[in-house]
Amino acid sequence: MDFFEVVRTRRSVRSYLDEDVSDGEVRRLLEAAILAPSAGNCQPWEFVIVRDKKRKEALSNAALGQRFVAEAPVVIVVCANVPRTAAHYGSRGANLYVIQDTAAATQNILLAATAMGLATCWVGAFDERRVWEILELPDEVRPLAIIPVGKSRRTPAMPPRIPLERVVHYEKW
Questions:
Q1: pLDDT band for position 101 (cuts 50, 70, 90)
Q2: DSSP symbol at 154
Q3: Helices (H) and strands (E) in the chain, counts
Q4: Sign of the CA dihedral 84, 89, 92, 96?
Q5: pLDDT digit string (tens) for 27-40?
Q6: Could you give the residue ranges of the DSSP H alpha helices within 3-158?
Q7: Whose CA is closest to 56, among 46, 45, 68?
Q8: Is 47 helix (H, G, I), strand (E, B) or coil?
């Protein structure tokens, strides 16, 4: 699939078929993730792969009851190893760069999944402390995105976009 077709067809899917996602497919998604750019090439990302039904249920509850999180066959939780970047960039690294870097890795997962015929949703609405506890993360690791992955039960239509003319500014506002 052409890159621009991948970008055009990616959707936030919230309904998954009861079909497995192989370990090989998950590995390909993660290989795409770690190719993302990062501040100073610090690569703060860490990934927790969740297949266990009870743990997915707990993540779903921590994600403010978003049931589709538990419905997906696999969930990837993208985390930031904060000291990895903070050691080089201090508080800006800890409070901004790790978020930017893991966001880039998350987007790579979403686009790679689309290219592979898989469906995803970027979930950012969750109780961070609760997810941290569910996954038994170390103190220095912060969960920043939950990505359910599976085969789409139905593909949503393209949501409306603000036209370029309203969001692009040249030289100044």
A1: very high
A2: S
A3: 8, 4
A4: negative
A5: 999 999 999 999 99
A6: 3-9, 23-33, 53-62, 68-71, 82-92, 98-115, 128-134
A7: 68
A8: strand
Which tokens in the block code for residue 167? Answer: 């969001």
**The amino acid at 158:** M
Asked if residues 13 and 155 have their Cβ atoms less than 8 Å apart, the reply is yes
> Domains in the chain and their CATH numbers?
3-153 (3.40.109.10)
Beta partners for residue 78, in sequence order: 47, 145
pTM: 0.97
Q: Quickly state the pLDDT bin for 155 (edges 50, 70, 90).
A: confident
Please give, one letter per residue, the 3-state secondary structure of 120-131.
ECCECCCCHHHH
Reading the block at residue 68, the tokens are 């589709």
Total residues found in the chain within this entry: 173
